[in-house]
Amino acid sequence: MTTDINPEPLKVAFIGTGGIAHAHAEALRSLPGVDLAVAIDVDLPRAREFASKFGISRTATSLQKAMEEGNVDLAAICTPPASHHPLAMEALALGLHAVIEKPPALSLRQMRELEATEAASAGTISCIFQHRFGSGAQRLLAMRKSGVLGRPLVGTCNTLWFRNQAYFDVPWRGQWDIEGGGPTMGHGIHQFDLLLHLWGPWSDVTAFAGKLARRTNTEDISAAIVRFDSGAIATVINSVISPRETSYLRLDFENATVELEHLYGYQDSNWTLTAAPGTEGCLEAWNHGEDLPSGHTAQYGNIVDRIRKGLPPESSISKAYATMELAAAIYASSVSGDTYVPGDIGEDSPFFDRMDGHLEPWNELQGARA
């Protein structure tokens, strides 16, 4: 049995103390053996306010300064997406473990750079994809691997959210160089990451995207048809212009339809299983085990446990590459009109460095075609 290799409290630094950092701190302070050690923000008064709320004794304006004043084991990177890559590179250079909010990087090149740097570091990178860690997803993955559900066949993966124009009027929103993309990168990525986690590798994708309703530099809607190595086919829609908000996943297997409907997180009650005639026995496997909601607490429990045991992250940068590569392929296909397979977007592709290939395809709002 693997045991803790370090019985000392895990000292955590929060880099960025805005809204999402609160979710990280709430999750971490609920776990045993974790010390919320330092709050880091270029806005020092905001860092102090965050520190006061969560009982953190130290503040700093940079990770380097925080390290000069005391030990840190784990850096929780809670800043806008453009800074994820450089901050994770800095943490790894200091030998720290790092947790990166989504998206983990802005491009496939940055993902490969993080992989290479991690390989040479004593630290590790975990990517926040919290929907993988709720009990519903864990149980369903085990059922799929056991064969009780049969082969995956047809899927629907919808992230239909609503963000008004004021949301995009914040200066850093909707910018390729800051957020990396629109709802495909910043919103729907959680849901189609869960789809890949449950159904395995994708084999090819064809997609459309556009800017239909919001004044922003990125898309506000994308739609893709994705085929998997298993032969299964799924549709993936990512939208921020849908007034009735929902996150919806439907997976049709040979022996059952599995549905998940929620908004920003789920528990077991958000899942529904419908057995095919004559295969009702597969439902019995669902009705066992704990009800652990998805969210930062569920994922951090896994991250902290594996760090303490010296195990590699389950939500590693390498495992996140397939999700990021699918996002890049959705963009590339929607711009070029071509179908993409894994590996198509290499170093010689414009989409390897930026999701829009620096082509700025959606400069104007797209009205109805004549």
Brief summary:
The chain has helices at 19-29, 44-54, 63-69, 84-93, 108-119, 135-146, 165-168, 176-179, 183-186, 189-199, 296-308, 317-336; strands spanning 10-15, 34-40, 58-60, 74-77, 97-100, 125-127, 152-162, 202-210, 221-228, 233-239, 241-253, 256-262, 271-275. By secondary structure, it is α/β, with parallel strands linked by helices.
Walk me through what this model shows.
The radius of gyration is 21 Å and the shape is globular. It has two domains: 140 residues, Rossmann fold (3-Layer(aba) Sandwich); 164 residues, Dihydrodipicolinate Reductase, domain 2. It is of the alpha/beta class and 370 residues long. 32% of the residues lie in helices and 24% in strands. It contains twelve helices and 13 strands. The strands form two sheets. It has a seven-stranded mixed β-sheet, covered by helices on one side. The mean pLDDT is 95.
Key terms for this structure?
single chain; 370 residues; alpha/beta; Rossmann fold; Dihydrodipicolinate Reductase, domain 2; 7-stranded mixed β-sheet; 6-stranded parallel β-sheet; 12 helices
SSE layout and pairings?
Blueprint: E1 10-15, H1 19-29, E2 34-40, H2 44-54, E3 58-60, H3 63-69, E4 74-77, H4 84-93, E5 97-100, H5 108-119, E6 125-127, H6 135-146, E7 152-162, H7 165-168, H8 176-179, H9 183-186, H10 189-199, E8 202-210, E9 221-228, E10 233-239, E11 241-253, E12 256-262, E13 271-275, H11 296-308, H12 317-336
Parallel strand pairs: 1-2, 1-4, 2-3, 4-5, 5-6, 7-10
Antiparallel strand pairs: 7-11, 8-9, 9-10, 11-12, 12-13
Helix pairs in contact: 1-11, 4-5, 5-12, 6-10, 10-12
